[in-house]
Amino acid sequence: MTSVGSVGAQKRWRLRAQNQVLKKGVVDEQANSAALKEQLKMKDQSLRKLQQEMDSLTFRNLQLAKRVELLQDELAVSEPRGKKNKKSGESSSQLSQEQKSVFDEDLQKKIEENERLHIQFFEADEQHKHVEAELRSRLATLEMEAAQHQAVVDGLTRKYMETIEKLQNDKAKLEVKSQTLEKEAKECRLRTEECQLQLKNLHEDLSGRLEESLSIISEKVPFNDTKYSQYNALNVPLHNRRHQLKMRDIAGQALAFVQDLVTALLNFHTYTEQRIQIFPIDSAIDTISPLNQKFSQYLHENASYVRPLEEGMLHLFESITEDTVTVLETTVKLKTFSEHLTSYICFLRKILPYQLKSLEEECESSLCTSALRARNLELSQDMRKMTAVFEKLQTYVGLLALPSTEPDGLLRTNYSSVLTNVGAALHGFHDVMKDISKHYNQKATIEHELPTATQKLITTNDCILSSVVALTNGAGKIASFFSNNVDYFIASLSYGPKAASGFISPLSAECMLQYKKKAAAYMKALRKPLLESVPYEEALANRRVLLSSTESREGLAQQVQQSLEKISKLEQEKEHWMLEAQLAKIKLEKENQRIADKLKSTSIGQGVGPAQENPTGVNAGGQEEASTKAVLEPIHSTSLIGILTRTSDNEVPDVESREDLIKNHYMARIVELTSQLQLADSKSVHFYAECRALSKRLALAEKSKEALTEEMKVAGQNISRLQDELTTTKRSYEDQLSMMSDHLCSMNETLSKQREEIDTLKMSSKGNSKKNKSR
């Protein structure tokens, strides 16, 4: 409160000082503008004087000009007169010349004076204009500055007023806030007093409990196992089922991702082996180099190194169950997965030199272009990076596997950093696989454009590209999955014994798990599970459904066994008949080929004859076509075994075609009869099951009838007993009511007596008061 007031006072003091400075500046500017205005007035007065003098001089100049004009006119008039009267006026001419010389001198003086006055007037006018322009510009600048200063002053006054209003509002708010704070302070004082009382009571209660607990501990507890971390690590922690289910779910997702990655790695190594057998030298045409033979031999062993990764992850997933405690100290199977990963990295290190040399051999071949050579160099660098990333990943996985085998191998403080580095290594693996996919795609595109590229090479390159894309997608999924769950992994590391930093050693963790199993078995033995009950209304509603179950579990198992046997038999028959059908198809193709060859031979024989025998050949061809049509035209005949389709008897049918027709007919009849037999078997089984269900329902109905009759007997006995109890309770209630009515009557009598006594007392008190008044 005081700090806010001091801040407001400082602001007001600063604004007042600024306001005084601005007022002083404004007053100075006003004095300057007034002095300039006085100077402007004086200049205006001098300008007016000069203007008046100019006007007088112009007027005098006009007069003199008029006088000169008059004199010139007079001179012009006097000259012709002088010429006429030369003789008579010599004296007058002398006089006129003297006057003319005087006038000329006077005129010259006036002209010089006029010229001088014009020069002075022009100079004065120019000086006046210059001074006026300077004064006007200075006046404009001063007015502009005055306007700016006035705007600043107005802005400052407005700001000052706004700050004053704001400070007043703040002051009002602070006053209101101070009042509320005072109220809150009073309430807090009251609360503190109450809390002190509660604290005193709690302290007394807890001190009593502490003394009691200490006495119980000293008497009952032989030693405190949570005091030492070695003993506390053997205590069974609280079972966190949600944590276990979450860890199992995460392990299942990781298993799926590892399976995809293993499949992609197997495909990549296998297709790489196939490519070595094809390019740059096809093994079917010529022998490949000893280097590639050795490389192919090593790649052929990839499954023995890649498959264990999936098995190790599967064992790790199976070790995480709902009943265990999953932390790094208890995940023993992680060590197995780390060993399998180490063996795979040894395999990568073993094949890396051969892979690099194989790429160099491709670059040295005559088919390799400069672009293909550049791609091969990039791929060699990518393979080195891939091996390095796997080595880095194996290092961190090995560190995570240390707590389950060597307790001093990795400190708990480094768990989070190791997990973070695992995520970074997975992201690096994803980046490397993206580079490999990009460069291999470019390499395959260049190789497909080569003139010597075979279809086998193109197909193998496509398969390698698909496996590399699958590897890239799998690496990206694993990296994103680990990044999303790394916070949960770091948070779940504290899951362990109560009031301790964690499990001390794998041996203590194993002992704890054994104790946990024993405790769970003991609790299970103590706790008898209650039978799952169904609400009474629901049980009544579902009774008929439960009683109408078709067959028991044994009957269903028997039916399933019979169905499986039938299915196996039918599958065997299906395979047999499929083989028969394939044989029949082959025979049909041979027969069609034979007929086609026969028709071709007949047509060639007819075309070789002479030209004059063409009509006879045509007739013979027509007869032969008619005969073949008659032979091939089907005729349907019916018998007891069904409908048989056969050819006409005009020509002798082929034995094999007749056998095929009969065989097909009997096959169709066998299929039809087997379907009917299966339908009859299923119906008989269904009827048998229904009969068994009806017999069971009948037995259950008889049992329920007997139970209901017994329940009816018991219910009748209960009804008679309840009726007897009802009569006895009625009698007891009637006796109690009569007693209560008597008691109420006695209470009414006592109340009436008390009222009478009160009335007598009132009358006596009134009489005494009247006597006192009369006295």
Automatic annotation (TrEMBL):
Keywords: Coiled coil, Endosome, RNA-binding. The keyword RNA-binding applies. It comes from the Eukaryota. Residues 79-99, 603-622, 755-775 are annotated as: Disordered. Residues 14-107 form the Protein phosphatase 1 regulatory subunit 21 N-terminal domain. Its main location: other. Residues 90-99 have a biased composition (Low complexity). Residues 33-67, 132-191, 553-587, 691-725 form a coiled coil. It is found in: Early endosome. The keyword RNA-binding applies. PANTHER family: PROTEIN PHOSPHATASE 1 REGULATORY SUBUNIT 21, SMOOTH MUSCLE MYOSIN HEAVY CHAIN-RELATED. This is Protein phosphatase 1 regulatory subunit 21.
